[in-house]
Amino acid sequence: xxxxxxxxVEIIINISNSKVDRPFTYIVDGELSSSIEIGMRVVVPFxxxxxxxKGVVVNISNSFDGNYKxxxxxxxxxxxxxxxxxxxxLSMWMRDKYLASSIDCFKQIxxxxxxxxxxxxxxxxxxxxxxxxxxxxxQIIKYLKTxxxxxxxxxxxxxxxxxxxxxxxxxKDKNVISTFIDVKSNIEKKYEKQVKLIDTRxxxxxxxxxxxxxxxxxxxxxxxxxxxxxxxxxxxxxxLKTSLNTVRALxxxxxxxIYEKEVNRNPIKTEIEAYEKHILSSDQNNVYKEIFNSFxxxxxxxxLIRGITGSGKTEIYLQLVEEMIKKGKGSIVLxxxxxxxxxxxxxxxxxxxxxxxxxxxxxxxxxxFDEWRRIKNNQAKIVVGARSAVFAPFExxxxxxxxxxxxxxxxxxxxxxxxxxxxxxxxxDIEGATLVLGSxxxxxxxxxxxxxxxxxxxxxxxxxxxxxxxxxxxxxxxEELNDGNKSIFSRELYQAMDHTLKQKKQIILFLNRRGFSxxxxxxxxxxxxxCNSCDISMTYHRNINKLRCHYCGLTEGPPSICPECSSKYIxxxxxxxxxxxxxxxxxxxxxxxARMDFDTTSKKGSYDxxxxxxxxxxxxxxxxxxxxxxxxxxxxVTLVGVIAADTSLNLPDFRxxxxxxxxxxxxxxxxxxxxxxxxxxxxxxxxxxxxxxxxKEHDYKSFYENEIQLRESFLYPPFYNMINILIYGENLVxxxxxxxxxxxxVWKNVDGIDEVDKKKLIIGPNPAPLEKIKNNxxxxxxxxxxxxxIDSFKTVLKRVIMYNKYNLNIKDVKISIDINPNSIL
Length: 825
Hints:
Elements: E1 7-13, E2 24-28, E3 41-46, E4 51-61, E5 75-76, H1 85-97, H2 102-109, E6 118-124, H3 135-147, E7 149-151, H4 152-158, H5 164-173, E8 177-183, E9 191-197, H6 204-211, H7 216-226, E10 230-232, H8 233-240, H9 244-252, E11 256-262, H10 282-292, E12 302-307, H11 313-326, E13 330-334, H12 341-352, E14 356-359, H13 365-376, E15 382-385, E16 397-403, H14 420-431, E17 434-439, H15 444-451, E18 456-460, E19 471-476, H16 477-482, H17 491-502, E20 506-510, E21 519-522, E22 539-541, E23 546-548, E24 555-556, E25 570-573, H18 577-587, E26 593-596, H19 606-615, E27 621-624, E28 637-642, H20 656-668, E29 679-684, H21 690-696, H22 700-713, E30 721-729, H23 732-749, H24 755-761, E31 762-773, E32 776-785, H25 790-802, E33 814-819
Parallel strand pairs: 12-17, 12-18, 13-15, 13-16, 14-15, 16-17, 19-29, 20-27, 20-28, 26-27, 28-29
Antiparallel strand pairs: 1-2, 1-4, 3-4, 3-5, 6-7, 6-8, 9-10, 9-11, 21-25, 22-23, 23-24, 30-32, 30-33, 31-32
Helix pairs in contact: 1-2, 1-14, 6-7, 10-11, 20-21, 21-22, 23-25
């Protein structure tokens, strides 16, 4: 079949089911064939009952080689592509790379909200040109004058007899109509009072005469508007300290008009000061030029900046983004988590104003959609955000920056379990853009790639303000205990805190835990209170006098006697952020103490509030978890105390030494960033571990050399890929049985590896380190594969798990596949 005007389209159907997880081919003919494009949504008949369902076009062809009958596309939903060809290509790559479903991957690139509720609307343009319109166009103009804005679906229904897609395209080309998309939901449109001059032809002098010389504030408003013609009442009121009554008086004189205008929901709630451009140091300039000179090249466009803390990486990013704006290209700037976003936003919005859009998970649906639409409509040139911002819908992408690239939050823990750095690398390949990674402590994988020529390595060894790195002192807490000091703080940390407060400087105390205490334990028999659903120790929160499981959320009161031996010697042990806060307030009662962890920042805007208070020097001592260990830049912080540096060393994770080195180095970098020198005191029960010893010297290169040898010896990344297969369910027998079945099938079907190597590369099945979470028993199988073998492993996993070719009983058991996971807990 190859009739004139007939096209064949491949469509991803909006159904989450592995049995239909592939493109389906449909026919498009007649009037629809001239309008359809890749990236548009369509309505198609699907299944035995030909139920009308929505999908997205991923490919178009003029021929079809199959020998079976095809169904026809019913209708096109959009008047222009909703998603670009490049992002479709990226989604298809992501599906194959991470063994994810097509629809899960496409959800990442769709506009925020329900895919099925995104609608196209038509507007009649103001002052459209007077042309020789057809009778059909005249009827449509008359119709739109009565409707103002109309849903495309409703419009098509009212003009069924017209070749509507062809007419709409013609009218858009003539600038008679325009279209826009919005989410059909319960979210109310946001309106704001606007003020504008009625007659812009009237001179300022004529306006002054009409107002009268005695109405000083009205004259001030008129002069303000003459420079802008229109503005929001909110901005006018803030700038001129005026009231609505004064503005209404001016409206009464026929000078201005007050009206309501729909506005985007702005996720930036505070006024941000201008952030002036800095002159780059010689070292910064060398790095900047190296990247700038690559902008016109199609190859060698990936860079890793290893710059010590405070070396001025952000200013380099800002100036690279400025060059992209000059070229008319978009830039994506990623930060590892929301806690970094407020400071990053301050700098980018302070430099580039309304050209910046923000994307992260704490925005409301309406805010996320409005920001997505601003990017799509080319109103924003820069996107600042967390992991998901890598999918920002730029039509002309020029640059992706990933700051603090070593952070684990760049790896998604939900389907699709993508690695943001790998994804960004692929996106710049597809779109001919530039990728810049930055960190004081790059991941071993990234540094290894740079040393082996897959990225250009650029290094900054000095702080931008020429200040020295803070001195780092390691305190052996075993000796403190032997000397009779049982408090949270070593004597040296206490003395340093006392001195810093007397100097009117600020302190950061870092603890890689949350809660008042880590666990409740019996000193008589060793019993530890655990969650019945998750089989992990519960955390004691003193402010509510409750135990809480931080995996499933179960909360209960602490026992007064031991359930095992009936001893009364059962109480909380360990130390958490709440306890550090309480103890700090007790020994420094005049200090202003704040805590920044998950519990204190769960409300919207809480990050900004705490960081703003720290910036304004309203906080003397800031106590926090990982979220304060990186990226924050406060000039008056001269002391950093690390309460328990080796906490992360005890995790069952091959990356534990790397994470410990990174945490200490990063949190130490918060000290001495201003004119005054900084000091860092690290408390530990394992002072001789190489990750702690080398962090003292800020010696990344020696740490890398130590760690990379261990990685190679034990067949870990970057030398081998790891795949974690997690099998979980409420019935332990079923989980155990299925785990062994999968293991045996993978072992049997992987080709090209001898039996001896298989024992090293196919490990399990074993109970997961966290054996039970939310009443689900968890077993896992770990696979290790060289780069050249990874595809054969994936092929086996698709056959055994994704397509279930061996008819395994997986009804009540779930399976998760994670390629190169951050953690196997």
